[in-house]
Amino acid sequence: MKPKVLKQNFSVKLFVLASLANFILLATLLVFSKVYFGSNIKVDSKENNIHYSASQDPLITKVPTLKDLLDGPIINNLDPNIGSDEAQVVIVIFSDFECQYCHSQEKVLAQVLANYEDKVRLIWKDYPSSDPDSKSFKAAVAGRCAGEQGKFWSFHDLLFASRDLDGSMFIKLAQELGLKEKTFSKCLEDIEIYKLIYDNIIEAQALDINGVPFIYVGKQEVLGEISYEELKRMVEAELKKN
């Protein structure tokens, strides 16, 4: 029986030594992790998980944001546009139907379009209030819905002329333009139209646009209302590049 006791004592001592060694190794790893990763280690107390922040670790490639990717407005056919697709100069305006300065700017843009005909293409970007219940946002939706029936620019002109952004006015303007009233009314609640407008808002924010009207003429950009002569000078500068 005596050798058996000695064997048990030896096993107990071996277990204690192994446990101590594991503890020391774990403590060393924790200290190393703290030194190496620093503030990149985050513990979720609810799920008791450890997360490593990629944004602070220089060894992990940063995922580019929209702001990182954009060096100018997005040019596509999802936004209302007028003029030739082959135009030498593209003008992009971020605007809001509730903005009085935007209203004045439209007259200047119309004059440029008339005088430069096929040389200029104009693209409209909505930048209303982000509140979907605001008159500003609802007017943007109404404009897009008129565009669904091929009447954006006509509706756009009537909206700026009336300066009344009440919901009942949208229906009156739709009737005036001969739009299909039921289709138009249904469109006013269409989430896909809302998404188009929010896409414009997100784009504007990524471009650091903090006011309207905001105009791009090629790579040139200007915030606020500008005169016909100023806009003409910008157009001419772009034409000389082509």
List the helices and strands and how they pair.
Layout: H1 2-37, E1 41-44, E2 49-52, H2 66-69, E3 81-82, E4 89-95, H3 100-116, E5 120-126, H4 135-148, H5 152-162, H6 167-176, H7 181-187, H8 191-206, E6 214-217, E7 220-223, H9 228-241
Parallel strand pairs: 4-5
Antiparallel strand pairs: 1-2, 3-5, 4-6, 6-7
Helix pairs in contact: 4-5
- What Rg, in angstroms, do the CA atoms define? 31 Å
Tally of individual domains: 2
**Quick one: biggest sheet?**
5 strands, mixed
Mean pLDDT: 82
Helical coverage, percent range: 40-55%
Between the first and last Cα atoms, what is the distance in angstroms?
102 Å
**Shape field:** globular
How would you spell out the order of helices and strands? Answer: HEEHEEHEHHHHHEEH
β content, as a range? Answer: 5-15%
* CATH architecture type of the largest domain: 3-Layer(aba) Sandwich
> How would you name the CATH homologous superfamily of the largest domain?
Glutaredoxin
How many DSSP helices?
9
CATH topology type of the largest domain: Glutaredoxin
Summarize the structure.
The protein has about 240 residues and is of the alpha+beta class. The chain has nine helices and seven strands. The strands form two sheets. The chain has a five-stranded mixed sheet with strand order 3-5-4-6-7, sandwiched between helices. The protein has a two-stranded antiparallel sheet with strand order 1-2.
